[in-house]
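Lab channel / #folding
Pinned by the channel admin:
"Please post every new chain as: sequence first, then the structure tokens as a reply. Keep commentary short and put observations after the output so the thread stays searchable."

First post following the new format, from NK:
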Amino acid sequence: MHASQISRRSLLYGSALFAGAAALGGCSSGDSPDAAGSNGPRSEAQGSATEPLPVPGEFQQAPALEGQDLPPVQERLPEQPYVIPHRWVTPGKYGGRLNMNVFTTTGAAGAVSDFEFFYGNSLLRYLNDGQDVGPGLVESWESNDDASEWTFHFRKGLKWSDGEPWTTADVMFWWEEFVLEQKMAVTPPDEARSGNGTLATFTAVDETTLTISFDTPAPLTPDRIAMWVNGPRVGPFWSMPSHYLKQFHPKYNKSVPADWDAVGGLMATRSDWHRNPECPTMTGYRCKSFDNARGVVLERNPYYWCVMPNGDQLPYIDEIQISVVTDDQVGKLQLQQGSVDYCHGPFNRVTLNDVQGLKDAAAKSDTEMILWDSGSGTGSIFFFNYDYIDDDLRELIRTPKFRQAISLAFNREAVRKSVYFNTGEPTTGTLSPKAIEYLVNDTGKDAYTSWRDCYVAYDPEKAKQLLDELKVVDSDGDGLRELPGGKKLRLRIDSQADSSPEHSTKDNQLAADLKAIGLDMRINPIPPQSFDDQWKSGKLMSRSNWEASDGPNLLVNPTWMVPIEPTRWAPLEGQWYQQTGTKTAGTELELDPFERHPPRMEPEREGPIQKIWDLYNASKVEPNEMKRHELVWEMIKIHVSDGPFFMGCVANYPQITVIKNDLRNVPRKENLTLGGFVNTWIHPTPAVYDPECYFWENPDQHA
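Reply from TO:
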């Protein structure tokens, strides 16, 4: 395709934008199964079984595995394989290839969204849109009376994708050689830290039994272990193929280079199954070939430990091709032209703006559009760096009235109309509205609405009044407000240079709204490769190209509500918390917080972060679920009184997935317990719906 053709088609694609709202209104994933353009006959069943299904009496394997000199399928599976529990799935057909693309400006190695399709490395799994926790690599688990010690029984006979046995030694390799030694920039997951800040003790009782012991009760441990897909770059590893990776570790091989554990170095690349065909994995697919500029080809893992209720070993589809696109418009054109079989919209910048173009092209591309709930608590987000390096600006940023003025000056309805086509609900910014703490009773509902509505009103006059009270006024008559004392006040939206139109549209609206009340805010593009390091060291003033949606309960990954790591709104204080219990804690205290390694600072003793930490630490040891909810509601009160610490615009708008009409076992909104829960990476979508069970109705047509 010539560049001129891309340009013209992009313009045509954009010109359909005005019809987006009407098109969205006519789009429903709940259409009749026999409706034109629908994905064939499909199940009306909802949700997933919460108790493990019986193990089939016999097993079947993919014909493509015949003649590969493999053990019989029953010998490649564990004694008790995982049986797919989703009520909407049906037995499928083996074969074919699934073509996908992924938008990335840093090559296939940086396409972390690829991992969100594969749940096979996880010890436990979320079911029913996070309402339940089911088994994974772990077959069963229990705790002592006060939940301070958890025992996990792994499936007997698990094997890595190269056929080598999986054992608890692979958990201990990760824990002892990387977490405790803080190698390869690995930090302890908070689910392995007690309410006292002490790291848990891991013990491999035998090859399939692991105990995790805390010095306090840890009742949320199973819920928290179900988070993420796990593995390189997306959640903790939890286990690593030690039989393969020891050769790249100096403890076991004295000839490895000194920088073996550097970010992007030897161990990081060798332990990444997505880009290293030699690295074993527990996921349904393993890497067949990798090209950073072009993409990755994945092939079935013949030792995958999951089966269908009829005994079919998964996956059904032979190969997945994920091609890199560096221009989102090119990716959308590929989708419209039918060269993409499955597109999870959030990973490819396919948004509600694209609905009309996708509908118009559906006949040609032979595709169907599915809408799942995003579960987002914010939509496109904005937040200041609470730990910004400049003393004067940090003092202002930490003043609640200043952030409240910013929020009140922001015309969210304009963004709701231009970006989200009047879907979702305006919000100051919360965690996901699907969280259990909001749904459990009327007190929870009130906690949610009070947080959602506290500074959501578009009230420029009130914003001006708050700034005047802070003596942030125009003292030199140039129409722009200065800091108290007359120093120029220049605000920045530090945005990644490859930020999507969703975020840039919101950023432009916010900058214009702030100019209207006399605040000078500039948009400052930052190269994505350096953004995180600058943010974590306090050098960036604000961030905008993200969103908050964590759940399904607010304590499993509370990073937006509680600063416990360095990527959200209080990075240096989050880093202080994250280092608690490690050998780094207590070091370099004589240095300026911004000069420490890593940069970190202790919160003000009577400040809001310390108060939130105290409530959070109490919640971690509280065995009573309702009392934990009450502690969350107390944290929310601080976000209302001292916030907003982060600002959203629209909550729970729809997300788009596009699939070929011949693809089966892909759930629709009505099949899902909460209508979908897409945006939060701790509830990994579509991995939670087990894409390994997707199949082609006519696989020979997709070879």
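NK: Confidence is low (pLDDT under 50) at residues 1-19, 28-38.
TO: also worth noting, The CA atoms of residues 290 and 296 lie 4 Å apart.
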